[in-house]
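Sample 1 of the test manifest.
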Amino acid sequence: MSSDTLLRPADGPSAVGLRRRSLARSALPISAAAGVAIAVIGALTTDIDGVAGTMVVAVLASIVIYVTWSLIVEGRQRATDRFATTVIAAAAVLALVPLVSVLWTVIERGIAVLGLSFLTDSMRNVSARSAGGGLFHALLGTLEQVAIATLISVPIGILTAIYLVEYGRGRVAKVIGFVVDVMVGVPSIIAGLFIFTGLVLTLGLPRSGLAAAFALAILMLPVVTRTTDEMLRVVPNDLREASYALGIPKWRTITKVVLPAALPGIITGAMLAVARVTGETAPLLLTTFLTQSVNPNPLDGPQASIPTFVWDQITSGTPASLARAWGGALVLILFVTVFYATARLASWWFMGRRGMSVR
Amino acid sequence: MRSTRTAQIAALGAATVLALSACSSSSNTASTPSGSSSGSINCATGSIKASGSTAQKNAITEWINAYQQACTGATIDYQANGSGAGITDFSNGQTSFAGSDSALKAENRPGADARCSPGAAIDIPMVGGAITLAYKVDGLSGLTLTPPVIAKIFNNKITKWNDPAIAAVNPGVTLPDQPIAQFHRSDSSGTTENFSKYLKATAPTDWPYETGKDWPAPGGQGSKGNDGVTASLTATANSIGYIELSFAQDAKLATAKVDNGAGAVEATSQNAAVTIAAAPITGTGNDLALKIDYKISAPNAYPIVLVTYEITCNKGLPADQATLTKSFLTYTASDAAQSTLVDLGYVPITGVVLTKVKAAVASIL
Amino acid sequence: MTATDTLVHDELGAAPASRKARWGDPIFKAVTLGAGIFTVTIMFAIGLFLLIRALPALANNSGNFLTSSTWLPDQSPPVFGIAALLFGTLVTASLALLMAVPVGVAVALYASHYATPRLGKVLAFLVDLLAAVPSIIFGLWGLAVLMPNMGGLLKWLNDHLGFIPIFQNTTGIYTKSVLIAAVVLAIMILPTVSSVSREVLVQAPDLQIEAALAVGATKWESMRMVVLPFGRPGIISAAMLGLGRALGETIAVAIILSALFEVNWHISEPGGNTFAANIALKWNEAGTNGLGALIASGLVLFLITLAVNLVARMVINRRRVKEGTA
């Protein structure tokens, strides 16, 4: 049951000589089985019921058994390591459970309505109680609004981050950095309110796709700035110094050395910002005017978007509308998936090896 | 190299968006015509916006669809963002008419009138609704409730289904020995306002709260929107809540009969129409604010009702909006349109009130 | 082909760098500074707008804004106070953060250092996908899937640990509570915390990790000694991003909470309200004074975020290991 391993001094007094014991590979499954057994017994005898409760007990019991076993056989150092590995892996699984549940719920409830006509029809003249109709008007609106918001926020965000990391010293940089941190916390509805009363009520601009894009840009800007800031700081100083040593001026160092090095992370940050705002509902309800028809002009007139489409269908409450709402959510997830995949591909295409950010 | 690639991608992206926009005109197709529209609509063209009450949302959408199918040059967009927001939009000139669950209040009138100058704003009742007491209790065949019992259920004084007070008004019905899961609205709502007005009028001792759009009583759980309460009712055993008739019908929930003194009245469109038709008009001229008599006691009058008004200008709407607004509202006030409300779970305006509504719409310039 | 290669290739044979670059630097610096100032201007504009719209309502308030729990701003006389909102917001956000940060960092660590590259990418992609789900769907999922399944656990907590006030439940109803909203919020901010942490942890210097392993550290010890300290500022940033979202989440919380205006430490009972959810619930029907009151509550939320981020920055600056700032 033991295998040969190198003697390691940190392992504590080992009277066994040069051979040191280590846990067999079957230890993990055995512990898991024991944990499940304990949980099942517990479920039958105590008042811990339900699938969730039993699973929690099973996992906890397995971990306790496994780690104690390792402690006895291998010693404290390796037991701690096994404990950490198990907990981290368990956390990864734990994170996946709600994710899979949410995705499954959306797919299960939304798939029935998905089809070519759902993507190409609008809701013009479709009643709440009847099936049919689609979200083309919303898809177009979201594409346009998010695109404009990205075009506004990403350049400004990157430039601000560059200032903070590369140039920033003293009060001004501190103020800007502080303000960026604060704006991360702006509730989406406040951004919507600001645009609504500021641009729409005070300046008389119509509620339109553009107004929505402004609100979304306000939400994206601090996220892009913050993550770009982090990515730029992580770029090793050696790169910069090597560039200066070659006589490259600072601004070219930044644009041609530092930015490309940080680009994968920056792209992830931008993507995260886009993914976050694509699903925002509250600011869109205030800054756009809902319509069931297609309006390709974001500058004027009522324009739909996928989150407001989902909202609109949910508040109608009929079974057909609810099905369309879940379908809309599914389309949104698919849209962002395609978007992520495209962005990662583009990042890889541009940067070659360096495009892969996860080892 | 890189810059050309960037340019290529940007061009591709722009082309995609342009292409999508180009095929937009062909996707405004009506996939399923809904209901029949009479051929006697006097069509107008253009596009107008309206916003306001969520209670009338499905009804207005049906009417808009019918109108747009008959009159293809017209586009009417209605956003159900709430009565208060609707009045704000209207006063700011963003919309041609507002849907509101209550007539213009004194504090809002100056703003609305200013928008309509040189004319004034008028309230035109257009869509009626019935507030039903929907419940989900297994095995319960039918339920009758009186105002004091309703009040006590909704302020947590009656907590079990087999409480003697409920049993007293339901002779012969087996009530389960279960706690009542009561649901009310967590958001501000005109439905709550009308429901609380009803309780205050009919059971003031048991309902000592001020009327208003916010839920005032302790106990129970709050859900957001008619749709939220409906979903909560469907998902919870032994539950009861107050929701619009159309929502109860769509979710196939049972509704309680209400006994205002003249016997148990079922919650149907026809019974609610009786109450609305009997409401005296308190507005002047073409401003048709109604005062609903919640204490109405007749064997065929369902008393818990609400009326949604379309608030617009009797004159003063910009020319491009006025024609389409008048044409659309003429259609909605017509007998044909009002009769489609019953199928949708709403309550038609009938009788003398409807005649005055038609006259008010006809007077719009 | 590295960036430096390209540079050398470009620069050799170009005009003398000094003359071309002399105007490049100040212009570029000015442009980036301009972007920064634009950001600051926006924030001040938002703060100013909130204040202007809130002041009339605050002046009219006949109740104590900070300690009262009632919310009747359109009544005469108007009475409204944010005590209950403050409590609900802080409790939901802190609970959400408490749940999301350990799990998020663990996921990030797993995806970047423990899993095989392919598994790590798949895991990262799946978690990031959660960020795309609209918040209203999280609310509906919370109601339909999470809430029915949490009742058992909450009841167990009440029965066995009920002497601790936060686990106690006197109503017997385990739905539509602050605790459930916090769990949904935690799930919502998980992708943000995890993604940003992962991007930082992945940059941890391999040399140092391998050095630690070479002197006999276990994998966990190398994580603990090298990767986590390296990533700490980034993780705190990730947590702040997550907190920002948790504090301001509107629709999902509005759908889940029962919306009672009271300070209730029994967090598994129905009730609770947060600033953002309150705005979502009351905005549509609010009168003029009501709108001002809601905006005043938004102002308080804004100030809370300010305070929290201030503290976070102080923590980061004290511990920051500047890996590569110019």
